[in-house]
Amino acid sequence: MIDQAxxxxxxxxxxxxxxxxxxxxxxxxxEKAPDIQxxxxxxxxxxxxxYQQALDRSDEEAAEARAEASALREEIAEMRRMIExxxxxxDEQSMExxxxxxxxxxxxxxxxxxxxxxxxRRLRSKVKEVTA
Length: 132
Hints:
Elements: H1 2-113
Keywords: Coiled coil, Membrane, Transmembrane, Transmembrane helix
Coiled coil: 48-110
Transmembrane segments: 6-27
């Protein structure tokens, strides 16, 4: 019977120790849970902030690209106007050259009609090749 009396308090001590350990573990777990939750919240906030910054940069880059494209369109339009002006000027000069060639031909004919020999001249080709 003495063995039973000694065994019962020993079991009680063991059960008490286990209960105390479980209680301590639950208390520590309860203390850690807010830390884990706040850590997760902070991590999610950082990820969201990172993606927001990336989106903002993307929006800024898109705005810069739109501005650059607009500037390039304006530059192309100005170049087109300049080419049209140059083309018109070349057409005017071509007509002037044709008129001068006709006048030279007429003067040569008058020299021949008067019995003279017209001076030798270099004839220009009708189409001049443009090389890049």
